[in-house]
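Sequence in, structure out.
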Amino acid sequence: MLAEYDRAPPGVPPLGSFSAPADGKRYLMYHGTSAVAAAQIMAHGFKPSADGMLGRGVYLSRDLNKASRYPLDEFVLKRVVLRVVVNVGRVKKIDYQGHPLQTTWHDHGYDTAWCPPNCGMVPSGLEEDCVWDPNRIQVIGLIYPNLAVQSYFPEEPAEGKVYRMYHGTSRSAAQMIMAHGFKQSAGGMLGRGVYLSRDLNKASRYPLDLPENQRVVLRVKVNVGKVKKIDRQYHPLQKSWHDHGYDTAWCPPGCGMVKSGLEEDCVWDPNRIQVIDAIYPRSQTGRMFYTLLTYGMYCM
């Protein structure tokens, strides 16, 4: 949702995801927050979090993709990312849960704790940094959500049409689905059904509790049948749309029902869904990308 590429200012090297930051160097990093909190930070500076995975400090990341997910409970269009330069001072690598200095690194003379990517400490598999002293951090800019990216599919699916959609799942579950077909979820925001999206970015976030390198996205084509738009919480047909003769419930992007702001579809009958193939993540310099990045309105 935010810019996917950013350059460091002159003289400030980016922090390589797999390389520990060098003691005493300055690096470009990012901090995801709300627009309101960002204004406070820019006016008065950072305040360290009282606690967290790495203890007290200011949490940052070299990876814009990581920072842009926060705050987790904030609607995506209300998030911003602060672009900062950090003098990391003395750095301690914390690369496993239960590390003896996981939350006490500052007591041992370190200024920054660095959690490398894919070490198992962060579900996303992306790198994280914790800086003890806010005075080591200089804000140099703001990155706002790209509103154009929020509305890949603003139009309601047309009844009876076939669309390309995506379903994020684990590798083991993907194998079961490809062998035996989809099964309805027992419940969810839109009630019972199979949850999909025409937005690959949306599907690639799931399952939320699984590291990105263990996820897979199934590319499918769906005959949506009769479609009902559900565009607000507590819609009278939010979970009962199928009882009223609809085959698919559609939650449009940016309507406030989904934290990411991305569209969601719920298909009642799994027989309306045909798996085309699986899309596996691949790593590039510590970031996860998917081998297929095209978006299709209709399946060909």
